[in-house]
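Format is sequence with structure; example below:
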Amino acid sequence: RLITALQNARDDPRVAGLVVRGVTGLGKIGLSEISELRSAIRNFSEGWGGKPSMLHVPEGLGLAGNGTIPLYFASAFDAAHVQPTSSVIIPGLSFGSVFLKGTLDKLGITPIKVARKEYKTAANSFTESEFTPAHRESTEALLESINKVLIEGVSSGRRIPKHRVVDAINVGIMTAPEAVAKNLLDSCAYRDELPA
């Protein structure tokens, strides 16, 4: 419904632009939904009838979770502002997996694994005590693919080279003014200092 509302708002002459405050709810939706929302924001702002879009993040990026995803989201806006005293935490991606084989062994439970090929790893949490080589390979490939999408999205949205996005992720934690200096955000501003 939100994407349809953005499409309708773009064509509505009564709507002058889009202002979004905060990114704390992003942890509750998946990357595919964030990507879809990000595309709708870009479409709202670009092309025929495009209108300005602005994000203000008073709580900083990454304080309530992975800041890499909120940075990807923020890069969809024409302007992204952060409170001057905030931190920007963009740690990149990580993946963890729980392996229950040892616990199940202690309980005397032996799961039956049915997998057609070594890359079918859904049952590994119950039948293995650590990543198998195929499981590790497929997980790393997935993370690399997601990381590529995030880096390319931030790079294109912020109009900065990909290596600068990678450098920022490698730094991980920075102050809001440092993030602005790296062109990851547009300015440091309190809510009452935002452009009208």
The two ends are 27 Å apart (CA to CA). Helices lie at 2-11, 31-45, 68-74, 101-106, 124-127, 133-158, 162-171, 176-181.
